[in-house]
Amino acid sequence: MGFRVHALRTGYWRPGTDYVKEVVEVVRDVVEDGDIVAVSEKAISTASGNIVDESRFSPSPLSRFLVRFWIRFVWGYLLSRLCRLRPATTRRLRDYPIREGSVHKQVALRAVGFLQALRHYSEGGIDGSNLPYSYVSLPLKEAVKVADEIRRAIEEETGKEVTVMIVDGDTTYSLGCLHLAPRKVPVRGLVHFGGFLTFVVGRALGVRGRATPIALSGKPMTAEEALEAADTAHRAMGHGAGRTVWDMAERFGTSLTGVTWEMLESVEHRPVVVLRRLNL
After folding, report:
1. For residue 195, what are the contacts with CB-CB under 8 A and spacing of at least 6?
2. How many whole angstroms separate alpha carbon 249 and alpha carbon 104?
């Protein structure tokens, strides 16, 4: 399977941005019948205000335990080896910030539950990259409705029949025809059996990992087609200001919570990608 890829640049989508209008505007002169329009879940969550300020939360004894023992020791010294994490990632886990990390884990416990909070990052779709200060984005609760809304708007404006896909960079691992998603998503063929185990199993076995299609609207796709399209789109989108909060802080020369809206707006963002199947 192959695609012709059009990664489309937009401004940074702050909360309150009309993301449907933004998508329609940027694809209007690009899309053709049969195209796949992929949109970043993170960008949609940010634009729609599906974010929380972690500085407003207080850590619990459980969230402190998760940081001090589970993240710093179990992930930092045991699971990091089993999952073959990069040395830089391992160092960051061993030095995981106690105060900010405990609050972050408290948010994860409330938003996505205990098993997802055991992840070392991207717990159930929670993500702090490309967000300022202490904000993190939450997973979309009605992603299919969002995809439907975007598809209808594109088709009404352009007259082209398209498939809209919402994409998350968190990894789905494929072992033959078994596709293990990082969280439960309404995409046929993707399965999830709970929390951090999907990541551990996938990484430990060294099986193929690809970005995750969160929702689809339009022409049906097989799981393999959806995963290949999602991964292609995610690679084309890039990482904006940084793949992680650590990367962002290093890029701008500030603390983990020192990134501002203005800093993020100074970076190129490509939250929308148009994919066109090639006749191979």
Report:
1. 113, 114, 115, 116, 117, 118, 119
2. 17
**Shortest CA distance to 267 belongs to which of 122, 114, 129, 112?**
129
DSSP run (H or E) holding 62: helix 61-65
Q: What is the mean pLDDT of the chain?
A: 96
Q: Which two three-digit tokens encode residue 237?
A: 């989108």
Place of tokens 């399977």: 1
Cβ atoms within 10 Å, residue 268: 12
Please count the other Cβ atoms lying within 10 Å of the Cβ belonging to residue 2. 12
CA angle 194, 195, 199 (to 5 degrees): 105
Distance (Å, whole) CA 196 – CA 180:
11
**What are φ and ψ of residue 51, in 5° steps?**
-135, 160
First to last CA, the chain: 8
Which among 136, 165, 140 is positioned nearest to 54, based on CA atoms? 136
Distance between CA atoms of 138 and 83, rounded to whole angstroms?
25
> Taking residues 175-204, what's their average pLDDT?
92
* Cα–Cα distance measured from residue 103 to residue 90, given in angstroms and rounded to the nearest whole number: 20
Work out whether strand 135-137 and strand 51-53 pair parallel, antiparallel, or are unpaired. antiparallel
Residue 1: which pLDDT band, with cuts at 50, 70 and 90?
A: low
- Residue 4 belongs to what H/E stretch? strand 3-10
